[in-house]
Amino acid sequence: MGTVADILDGDFYRFGELLSDEERQLILRVREFLRTKVVPVANENWARAEFPTHLVQGYADLGIAGLAYPESPGPRPSSLLSGFLALEMAHADPSMATFFGVHTGLAMGSIVACGSDEQRERWLPAMSRMEKIGAFALTEPHGGSDVAGGLRTTARRDGDTWVLNGEKRWIGNATFADLVVVWARDEEDNHVKGFVVEKGTPGFSATKIENKIALRAVQNADIVLRDCRVPEANRLHNANSFRDTAVILRRTRSGVAWQATGVMLAAYEIALDYAKNREQFGRPIGKFQLVQDLLVRMVGNTTASLAMVVRLAQLQEAGTYRDEHSALAKAYCTTRMREVVGWARELLAGNGIVLDYNIGRFVADAEALYSYEGTREINTLVVGRAITGLSAFV
Q: What totals of helices (H) and strands (E) does the chain contain, helices first?
């Protein structure tokens, strides 16, 4: 059993105790790195919209990139451990949690799920060591939720190469990534296929998106592909339709639910500490009934969300989870997260809108988590189709 120090304050039902002793030790090692290296610079990176390149080696040294994949050395971790790792990262800094999730979940996940044995051997070891950083290019300027049927980026076979043309938007890590997984529609058979575009490929350009109000340290980019030639050897050989893409999104959506829960934990803990120490009318504001009401609502949302993602991890481990399970968790947890960060901001009053008190960054970053990996509306329709047997998609 873990000690009190092992469990985050917001883990009211102590779900962290479900981890094994070995898993808990890894979590504590990751938490120490995040606490001492990531958190102290998070607000500054956010304010400047700069990515802390100097931290990448620290993440690499933790040895957790690609940990969940069969190709990684050592024993495969549980889905519960993978979830708690995502929670811990978002609890410290949602921007860096997103960077890591894009690299390991979306980019590496695409190669694991859709690449050939040779492709996995070629790219995954360096990505696991974070010597090569990945990105994932699916969303387009004119299409997000309808990308399954409305993908405009095209791929045309020309001998031993493929010629890619189109545009992508909101692509995290793309300004500095070594490998970008680009999804394009084959002009010949109209099916979606995946291609690994390596840094320096002619016809590929990535321009940083400016003026964001959320996840500002994440280097999101607009990508332009103009007669970008990719060798057949870089086409993901097991990506032959959008259904293959959906397999990756199923798992990463569950990761976003874990991230949202980490944001809730952070917001609750910031608010709890503030309530204990901020004095008004001659007493700590935590002694007022309305303040305690806000705190209880926060811990209730957080506990319910944590229970959901823990159960989701169990379904993943059993191999019985489906798209609708991830969709419900993503929709529910990010909605509850929005409420929690709002209540925390309310509790801090004016101090909640400046970076000095930390909660302002989480309030803003929550908006991005709420939208990416499928909006609440789209994930709702995925669940609705599953429970009724009737599709409401148009």
A: 13, 9
